[in-house]
Amino acid sequence: MSAPTVPPPAASPAGASPRRRGRSLAQEVVDALTAQIEAGTLRPGDKLPTETEVMLAQGVSRTVVREAISRLQAGGLVETRHGIGSFVLARASRPVGIDPATITTIRDVLAILELRISLESECASLAAQRATPDDLAALRRALDAISAAAKSGGETATLDYAFHLQIAKATGNRYFVDIMAQLGTTLIPRTRLNSASFAEDDADRYAARLGQEHEDIYEAIARRDQEAARAAMRTHLAKSRERLRRAHEAAGQAGGDSA
């Protein structure tokens, strides 16, 4: 099985903070690979991209890549077999009791969105209070990556998830991160559903609308406005819930409840 390619980071806009160095740069590589593992792009037993492939995709040195792999090993995400490569390990049992494999219908996704509204609205508020300059730079890069992928017609769900995960990280509370990481891209409804069609919109306008909702969240966090950040996140997720509620009703009228 060929290893999936790690998506390269989006170029920073003019005036944005430059990429960090050393140990924090290694963590960015860890985050990129972890997002793929949590999303299921890299599955247990899959071989990671080679050091050279990660170097080219992420624009980092071999030393940084090796540090990132060491961190993944320490976190129990991968194992390295000498002379062969590094492989994704099966995750331990999930302590929170939510199995993403059971999220299979529109009703299930609606229930997850209800959870997200409470969870992520508070994440956004805390991020507005606690985010460091490095956190804000990482959020900016995540949004730029989503925008670039949308313009090129690429897949954006994993990048969308990475943006929401980064907000959780900016809270400084590892338990928010644990829950977000556990659910992976099951948090993003369009990985299962054609949300643009349910919104009765074309893909470009739908992507632009989502992009503006994300920008509103980021801008509130960046200006340290906790209430605006909470409200922007709640609005974003409530709109997703409403689109999917309509989809659920349509599915029920058609005599089915499958996503």
Using brief descriptors, characterize the structure shown.
259 residues, mainly alpha, Arc Repressor Mutant, subunit A, Four Helix Bundle (Hemerythrin (Met), subunit A), two-stranded antiparallel sheet, 61% helix, globular, transcription regulation, WH_DNA-bd_sf, transcription, WH-like_DNA-bd_sf
Would you mind describing this structure in some detail?
This protein has 259 residues and is mostly helical. The chain has 2 domains: 67 residues, Orthogonal Bundle (Arc Repressor Mutant, subunit A), CATH 1.10.10; 154 residues, GntR ligand-binding domain-like (Four Helix Bundle (Hemerythrin (Met), subunit A), Up-down Bundle). The protein is 61% helix and 3% strand. A hairpin with a 3-residue loop joins strand 1 and strand 2. It is globular. About 11% of the residues have low confidence.
